[in-house]
Amino acid sequence: MTALLTAYVLMWPVLVLGILITIVRGFAKDAREARKEGHPII
Fold it and tell me: In angstroms, how far is CA 31 from the centroid of its own chain?
């Protein structure tokens, strides 16, 4: 039971990290495209 609870608690930082990486990759892609086209990011 302790191992399951530990796995459940440790799963959340991994999940959040995956979502954060996805968001950062999308922002970086948009920033590169905007810089290439000469448009401001904001």
Answer: 15
CA distances to 2, 3, 13, 38 from 22, in Å: 31, 29, 14, 24
Model-level pTM? 0.73
Range of the domain at 25: 1-42
Total domains, the chain: 1
**What's the confidence (pLDDT) of residue 41?**
85
pLDDT digits (tens, 9 = 90+) for 16-31: 999 999 999 999 999 9
Q: Is 34 left (phi over 0), alpha (psi -120 to 50) or beta?
A: alpha
